[in-house]
Inverse folding.
């Protein structure tokens, strides 16, 4: 009997150690480039649904790409969630991400996912103008209704947008303007140089200009529609508008990080983000999700907006060059 007990104790310890090891494996690190509150909602819901803990860091799209590049020889995260698809395409080009064909991606339209499995879209989101109605009234300014109108001398110092070095939103502005000028980069950058004269601040993140407009710190801002709709729903004195020439949009995406330390477990988060539960959370945040869930009242589908014929593959592959061009010809002038 004593011998049996002695044999049983080591076996019990092995079982417990194995159980603890399994529990420890069910944990992942993620870089999240959605709105911070949305990221919090998504990660909390995933953990509640699966029991898998997510240690996540909120980074703007450009910051996430730069962090993944800096850590490429020793990755600290396994999945990149959200952020402008242009940067996910650039990350693929730079060898920072790895392919994963999620079974949940089968129903996503072909134009919203990578044919090689390196990224998959989770929602659409159009660029818009946002303006503080009180600030415009105070300065006796009309709301902008076109890209051309943003160049008016009356708007000098009244506009904010993000910096394309750190913000995928701002880089999407550059690619949108190139598309509007039928691929003529010289004309697009001539416009950006003129716009620069009216910009008071280039912020780190794409959401910051809209928040600053809501607080009355700027009259006009450029950003994605969902951020502004949430601010409007919270009661801030702002309105949105879309440029009559046409606007661009993001295909917010997810990617697996190459050689990520919890690669297999991160696939579970990837799959979950493409499903109905995550889709409902994103839809409640005014996002145009690809999952088959109802959109929130007030969300504005792309079919209701004039959008440009943008080439995201080209934009992703030319990001480094175009951002460098913007720094040299616009920002530092």
């Amino acid at each position: 009997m004593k011998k049996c007990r002695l044999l049983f104790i080591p076996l019990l310890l092995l079982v417990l150690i194995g159980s603890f090891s399994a529990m420890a494996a069910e944990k992942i690190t993620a870089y999240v480039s959605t709105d911070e509150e949305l990221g919090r909602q998504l990660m909390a819901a995933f953990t509640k649904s699966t029991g898998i803990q997510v240690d996540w860091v909120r980074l703007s799209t450009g910051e996430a790409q730069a962090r993944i590049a800096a850590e490429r020889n020793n990755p600290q995260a396994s999945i990149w969630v959200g952020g402008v698809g242009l940067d996910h395409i650039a990350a693929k080009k730079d060898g920072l991400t790895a392919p994963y064909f999620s079974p949940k991606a089968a129903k996503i339209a072909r134009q919203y996912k990578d044919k090689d499995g390196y990224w998959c879209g989770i929602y659409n989101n159009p660029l818009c103008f946002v303006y503080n109605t009180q600030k415009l009234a105070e300065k006796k300014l009309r709301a902008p209704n076109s890209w051309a109108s943003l160049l008016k001398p009356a708007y000098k110092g009244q506009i904010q947008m993000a910096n394309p070095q750190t913000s995928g939103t701002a880089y999407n502005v550059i690619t949108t303007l190139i598309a509007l000028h039928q691929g003529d980069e010289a004309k697009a950058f001539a416009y950006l140089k003129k716009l620069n004269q009216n910009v008071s601040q280039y912020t780190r993140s794409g959401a910051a200009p809209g928040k600053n407009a809501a607080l009355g710190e700027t009259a006009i801002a450029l950003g994605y529609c969902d951020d502004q709709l949430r601010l409007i729903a919270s009661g801030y004195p702002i309105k949105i508008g879309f440029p009559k020439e046409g606007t661009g949009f993001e295909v917010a995406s997810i990617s697996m990080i190459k050689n990520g330390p919890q690669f297999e477990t991160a696939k579970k988060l990837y799959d979950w983000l493409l499903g109905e539960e995550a889709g409902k959370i994103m839809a409640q945040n005014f996002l145009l999700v690809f999952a088959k869930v109802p959109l929130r009242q007030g969300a504005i589908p792309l079919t209701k907006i004039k959008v440009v014929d943008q080439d995201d593959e080209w934009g992703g592959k030319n990001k480094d060059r175009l951002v460098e061009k913007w720094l040299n010809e616009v920002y530092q002038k």
Observations:
- Residues 272 and 278 are 7 Å apart (CA to CA).
